[in-house]
Amino acid sequence: MNNFEYCCPTHVIFGKGTIAKLNKLIDRNKKILMIYGGGSIKKNGVYEQVKKALEGYNLVEFGGIEPNPKYETCMKAVELIKQEGVDFLLAVGGGSTLDATKFISLAAKYNGDDAYDAIMIREEQVNDAIPLGDVITLPATGSEMNNGGVISRLATDEKLPFHSDLVYPKFSIIDPEVTFSLPVRQTVNGIVDTFVHVMEQYCTYDVNTPLQDGWALTILKTLIEEAPKVLANPSDYDARANIFWCATCGLNYWIALGAVQDWSTHMIGHELTAFYGIDHGQSLAIVLPRLLKNQKVSKSRKLAKLGREVFGITEPVDLKAADLAIEKIEEFFNSIGMKTKLADYEIDSKEAAEKIRDRFTKRNVAFGEKGAVNAAAAYEILSEC
């Protein structure tokens, strides 16, 4: 096991009716900016619950955060913060809303001309941020218990990740009941996103982390068991709760501690979203099976273990078991209604492969646990998508 350091300061409040606890979590003297998306929280009752819990607070609102949050929109919120003298941010919505809020918390304290370039490209150290909390309404990104986010920029067709210990939420309220009304598409996207988060941290090479591996495989098994239940009965509280906690634990770094990580599926997927606008979950479902096949030899031991423990594969030869595991993963995605080919979204695989190869070449990047997913490998992977 590799050395690691871990500190998560987020106070998690999980369960039914927990939005009402907001007034015990935020200082009444704070001026709060409530940040949300396209208005779904006003349809599902979450907005009213938040407003009721914060009755008497000095509250300003900013709506309109996109499913793939845009830098341009975030900077409008930064302007409002400076005008209003806001000193606490409350994200109410899914992972995109929370990712945007994290970026906004940093950008509001950045004094330069281009916060995106500084934080996302140059990765400058920002020494201050506006504190934030959240009411998370969509199980997917795990952003509610980590220090990262992903932001897109319209002007350059970019979608990039960032991390800062300053943006760990002070608290995260997770009420599975608010997910009952989620559209099927969002539910499925979230399940796939969580599944791939786990794969990025688990499916590399062994450095003797049996506990972390066991956690990871249990998350995958739970997703596979619970997904059909929520699709059959969207109001199944227990299934929703299990999927939500899987999403949180899928990216709160527990399963990555001391292990080796990949993240190349995400980096390729981000480019597909940046160029073509497809959902994050859709991009991951397209890329993962082909990337696993491309990198099968180096990942065969972990893939074989997954196949045997999650899917019950009995093949004794690791490389053959790895092939079967990849097939089972794609079958699972398809079984919950997730399409896994670029053609399903009317995207030409050769064009996409060329665009992303050129971008990776220009940036001179190589991803994956061994740096094996370079521009040429990305081209090969996407050509098979």
Summarize the structure.
The longest helix has 23 residues, at 210-232.
What does this structure look like?
There is one protein chain. Helices cover 49% and strands 11% of the residues. The protein has helices at residues 40-43, 46-53, 71-84, 95-107, 115-121, 184-202, 210-232, 237-250, 264-276, 280-294, 296-310, 318-335, 349-363, 375-383, and strands at residues 11-14, 31-35, 58-62, 88-93, 132-136, 148-153, 158-163, 171-174. It has two domains: 11-178, Rossmann fold (3-Layer(aba) Sandwich), CATH 3.40.50; 182-383, Up-down Bundle (Dehydroquinate synthase-like, alpha domain). A hairpin with a 4-residue loop joins strand 6 (148-153) and strand 7 (158-163). Helix 9 (264-276) packs across helix 10 (280-294) and helix 11 packs across helix 12. With 385 residues, the chain is of the alpha/beta class. The protein is built from 14 helices and eight strands. The protein has a six-stranded parallel sheet with strand order 1-8-5-4-2-3, with helices on both faces. A two-stranded antiparallel ribbon has the order 6-7. The two termini are 34 Å apart. The protein is globular, with a radius of gyration of 20 Å.
In helices, the fraction of residues equals: 40-55%
* Number of H- or I-type helical stretches: 14
Q: Name the shape in a single word.
A: globular
* CATH architecture classification of the largest domain: Up-down Bundle
Span of the ends, CA to CA: 34 Å
Give, in order, the helices and strands. Answer: EEHHEHEHHEEEEHHHHHHHHH
The averaged pLDDT comes out at 95
Number of strands: 8
CATH topology name of the largest domain, in short, is Dehydroquinate synthase-like, alpha domain
| Rg from Cα | 20 Å
- What is the makeup of the main sheet? 6 strands, parallel
CATH superfamily of the largest domain: Dehydroquinate synthase-like - alpha domain
- In total, the number of domains comes to 2
Determine the strand fraction and express it as a percent band. Answer: 5-15%
Computed structural class:
alpha/beta
Q: Main sheet: which strands, in order across?
A: 1-8-5-4-2-3
Instruction: Indicate the low-confidence ranges by residue numbers.
Output: none
Assign the CATH class of the largest domain.
Mainly Alpha
